[in-house]
Design a protein that fits this description.
The chain is built from ten helices and eight strands. The chain has 251 residues and is α/β, with parallel strands linked by helices. It has one domain: Rossmann fold. An eight-stranded mixed sheet has the order 1-2-3-4-6-5-7-8, with helices on both faces.
């Protein structure tokens, strides 16, 4: 892919919107905030959007990073991002959601799961709360197995397997998601306590184990139907998700 060196004024604009977060494996490059007006249940809500990219290279010379990226086809793989609402850095109480990408539920509105509902409802809850952040995690499809493997798991589910059995029959663990990069970004954007919207105690434990101050947990159930009844029951019985109203340690 051909590319040209950025004009100085272009690089200067970008430098003001990029920050580097050092990690054990290299660095996370976070770009934003960017105004993002969102159609949320017929109302326009303006979020602040950030996107991040993990790289082995650690440098504050962003020209080097941009030159490297322009020789790659980033469209061939997805990057994670976060929508921030309100005074997320300074507000005393903030609501967050660590949302795993679901191609079928988030984009197509599939009722085989509750992901599309959870995505929109968590955004609405954050806006109603006044401040918070939705982390949209792009490498979490199918609990970490990827879209093609998820499609094969769906075939197995149509032949009697539950979600956990299908993943394990394909050689995967039930849940291989990793929250390390999202946690690093969260620590960069906010140091005060957060309340986590989730039914999954593993998400809460990941944040607690990273030393993040957690003020509590808010359940996020809804959109139950004949199409996802077995899926939701499997979440509770096989994957340890908490039923609505259930509690987590240190809630």
């Amino acid at each position: 892919m051909l590319h040209a060196k950025l004009e100085p004024e272009v690089l200067e604009v970008l430098k003001g919107k990029i920050q580097m977060i050092k990690t054990d494996e290299g660095a996370i490059y976070l770009v934003g905030p960017i105004n993002l007006p969102v159609n949320l249940y017929g109302e326009t809500v303006v979020f602040q959007w950030y996107c991040w990219l993990s790289q082995c290279q650690v440098t504050e010379n962003y020209q080097e990073i941009i030159d490297k990226l322009s020789s790659e086809n980033l469209a061939e793989y997805q990057q994670s991002s976060v929508l921030v609402y309100g005074d997320f850095e300074n507000a005393e109480d903030a609501l967050i959601r660590m949302h795993s990408i679901c191609h079928t539920g988030d984009i197509f509105g599939s009722k085989r799961c509750d992901c599309g509902f959870q995505l929109k409802q968590s955004m609405q809850n954050i806006a109603d709360h006044g401040t918070g952040a939705l982390f949209y995690l792009a490498n979490h499809e199918g609990r970490g197995i990827g879209l093609f493997s998820k499609a094969m798991a769906y075939v197995l589910q149509e032949n009697g397997y539950d979600t956990v059995e299908a993943n394990e029959s394909l050689g995967f663990v039930d849940d291989s998601r990793n929250y390390d990069d999202a946690i690093q970004v969260l620590k960069t954007l906010r140091t005060k306590p957060v309340k986590l919207m989730t039914n999954n105690p593993k998400k809460l434990e990941a944040l607690q184990n990273a030393g993040l101050p957690i003020s509590g947990r808010e359940p996020l159930w809804g959109d139950k139907s004949e199409y996802n009844e077995k899926y939701l029951k499997t979440k509770i019985k096989r994957s340890g998700h908490l039923e609505e109203g259930g509690t987590c340690p240190n809630d």
